[in-house]
Input
Amino acid sequence: MVKWIPAELHTHTLHSDGRQTLEELAQSAANLGLECIAMTDHNTQSALIDQERVQQQFGVPIIPGMEWNGPPFTDIC
Output
């Protein structure tokens, strides 16, 4: 049987075009009962500098990712 895992696999922080810090995203995820999130800022992983601390503080694993923007129509997540 397949287990359903509540998760958000596409998020952005203030380091990209998001409106929240990594801490705020993790807090929101914990409040919603999500089991993990993926941080996928555009062309940077700088928000992940505090990844370990934030994961421990809120109990929400953070999957590192990046939405790479190249020439038009070539976005890769």
Observations:
- The mean pLDDT is 93.
- The radius of gyration is 13 Å.
- The longest helix spans residues 22-32.
- Residues 20 and 29 are 12 Å apart (CA to CA).
